[in-house]
Amino acid sequence: MPDLAFTKNMVTVFINIIKKEIEKMLTQKRTRIVAAFPGTGKSYYHNEHPDTTLDSDSSNFSWIMRDGEKIRNPDFPHNYIQHIKDNIGKYDFIFVSSHSEVRNALKDNCIFFYLVYPEYNCKDMYLLRYEQRGNTPEFIKLIDENWECWLRQCDSETYGCKQVSLSSNWNIEDMVSHTICSENGDM
Predict the structure, then answer these.
(1) C-alpha dihedral over 154, 173, 94, 89, to 10 degrees?
(2) Quick one: average pLDDT of 151-176?
(3) Residues 33, 172: Cα–Cα separation, whole Å
(4) Domain containing 34 — which CATH number?
(5) Does residue 7 lie within any of the structural domains?
(6) CA distance 174 to 5
(7) pLDDT at 16
(8) How many domains does the chain have?
């Protein structure tokens, strides 16, 4: 005959584990990952809503200093993805890089994301935005030279994400409002 006290203790332990898991599920936020092109308003939106968003700048994970020299971090993008995973459930929105290696790593880790990028005809507006916000000439030139290629890559994403192409009068704030309304059935 089984030890009744032992069985009761095991049931109590099991019930407490279930209670903690339910409590965790009820307190966790439904996090949406937003992989957004530079200049779409990630940092601006985060600064306006710091309690509900996380602005995860990939450059904090993709570069390291070694012997006084800035080099690519060999742990990237795995370290970045782990950072994202560690913050799921803590924020409503996590804004992340739209670089192809990040998008691929998100898909490899079965993390659904919204892919937010400008329409092709917004190039001049975005280049001006980069200049006005103080980006380096090298950064602006990089975007200028790769604009069409990178937007084509965004257009070609076929699974693991929902594409959101921003017209000239839309930004992340519009996308977030639209997403929440759509998910709540308000549209």
Answers:
(1) -130
(2) 90
(3) 12
(4) 3.40.50.300
(5) no
(6) 59
(7) 76
(8) 1
